[in-house]
Amino acid sequence: MSNPFLKQVFNKDKTFRPKRKFQPGTQRFELHKKAQASLNAGLDLKLAVQLPPGEELSDWVAVHVVDFFNRINLIYGTIGDECTEQSCPVMSGGPKYEYRWQDEHQFRKPTALSAPRYMDLLMDWIEVQINNEELFPSHVG
Question: Is the pLDDT of residue 47 over 60?
């Protein structure tokens, strides 16, 4: 790997979040394989995201939520080093919008945070939701 950008992106010391994997042999694993096959085949996007016959809508949506989270983590991991506490002191959506963080623990009121801090808290919160067996059961039934 001679490209310096790729070396930086795939540096083992960086804080990439591990992907949530589906257990081989489970229904979710099979749905994930179907989703990957259809998305990688260059098919019509409307057809690629349609619920396969005989599958549960909640399982199909869960697979795509987890896959979307994994892809966003990968993208954020590649650009996250460019946005520091100093260069991105506010989490914003352009000059008109500022995002503030609020949770049930440390930030009980909407709080202005730097973009990296906001993203770390957001990704941690999403990961907790995805790993919550009540919201995203990993076993059939």
Answer: yes
